[in-house]
Amino acid sequence: MNVLTLTTSEEDMLTTLERQWPAWLPVSLVSYLAHIEFGVPIRAIGRARACHASTISRQIGRWEQLRDDTLIDEALNGLVKTRRRAAGAAKNEDIYSMTLVKPLSQITPDDETFPNEARRVLRRLSEPGAVLALSGDMEKGVVVRETHSGTTQRTAIVERALAQALAVKEWIVCAAEGRVARYRITNAGRTALNRLLAEAENRASGFAEAASVFEPSGKPCLNRKACYCSGESPLMLLGRRREKDGSLFLEAALVNAGERLREDFELAQMGPKPAPDWAAVIAGGEAAEPAATPAQTPLSAEAASARVAGALRELGPGLGDVALRCCCLLEGLETAERELGWSARSGKIVLRIALNRLAQHYVTVGSSQMIG
């Protein structure tokens, strides 16, 4: 029995699907699923979309080809299952089996989460040589990139649901299949990244609500302009600067230490609990974070928060402040100097000292490598 017989017309069926699924889904994808999975006629979809049936037919054929991608197929299967679960619950049919299906919030990002997470991942994928590595049996993937020294650096953690969403939007494409698939950013993804960055900057400048830039306390900052580069973080840019004698201002080990701190900081923001007051942590006034328990994996937000707190507490006031702003909040040195009330050009010296101590800290605690 067709689960969409709950609606009064074929056009209402299409509207029902659009209401129940996230708004960021492509319209053509909703049309495809409505026809292939739920039996809505192509002509009915064409009438609802105010276009010819042949246009809908071409869209359906295109999505049928795109579905060869494992991530896209997984995402579409999840959407179909959640819709059938909702319909089954409404009809009181097979409720037990329907409860075995994950809720939609666990299968695909919602409309509020998706732009912020997409911007974070696309920014890392836009770096030269960056790819998203994802194994078929893993719930999370990692963005990795090759460094100038020929080593591989992990720069971001990606939930599988988010990777599926990026593939559905055609912002990433599979570049190499296998046990570990590798995805690269597309031209459409770069265009979307520029738009997302512009929107974030407008919010930070007060032209829209709720910026995604955070104060050291972890609370949103509504009047600070975001300072970032679409391809590299401020720390990476500093890592390319050279002294008068031609030597690098920051050695690779120092840049890696800063990126390690940033990775934990971003992961800590993903937990259900609010982020600690990092300024209080640096000053030593915040209660110590409990050590990770065996049940908490290194990828958990709680474990990452404890690692950030330990690193910042080790650096202390001054060193911890500049590390937090330049490594985690992605502020440039000039902005950090101004916010901290320091004299011009003093920040880079303090930052280098902070990164040296941070690198020593990670060696001491046996956690010098990024976890991805």
Description:
This protein has a five-stranded antiparallel sheet with strand order 3-2-1-5-4. The protein is an alpha+beta fold and 372 residues long. It contains 17 helices and five strands. The two termini are 45 Å apart.
Strand content: 5-15%
- The H/E string reads HHHHHHHHEEEHEEHHHHHHHH
> Which segments are poorly predicted (pLDDT under 50) over 5 or more consecutive residues?
1-8, 89-105, 205-230
Shape designation: elongated
Roughly how many Å is the radius of gyration?
A: 23 Å
Helix content: 40-55%
* Number of separate helices: 17
The tally of beta strands, per DSSP, is 5
Strand arrangement within the widest β-sheet reads 3-2-1-5-4
Sketch the major β-sheet.
5 strands, antiparallel
SS class: alpha+beta
* Gap between N and C termini: 45 Å
Q: Mean pLDDT, as a whole number?
A: 77
Write a short abstract of this structure.
By secondary structure, the protein is an alpha+beta fold. The protein has helices spanning 10-20, 27-36, 42-49, 53-66, 70-91, 95-98, 104-107, 113-125, 160-168, 187-204, 234-239, 252-268, 278-283, 301-315, 319-328, 333-340, 347-365; strands at 131-135, 140-146, 152-159, 172-176, 180-185.
Comma- or semicolon-separated keywords:
372 residues
Give the topology.
Layout: H1 10-20, H2 27-36, H3 42-49, H4 53-66, H5 70-91, H6 95-98, H7 104-107, H8 113-125, E1 131-135, E2 140-146, E3 152-159, H9 160-168, E4 172-176, E5 180-185, H10 187-204, H11 234-239, H12 252-268, H13 278-283, H14 301-315, H15 319-328, H16 333-340, H17 347-365
Antiparallel strand pairs: 1-2, 1-5, 2-3, 4-5
Helix pairs in contact: 1-2, 2-4, 3-4, 5-9, 8-10, 12-14, 12-15, 12-17, 14-15, 15-16, 15-17
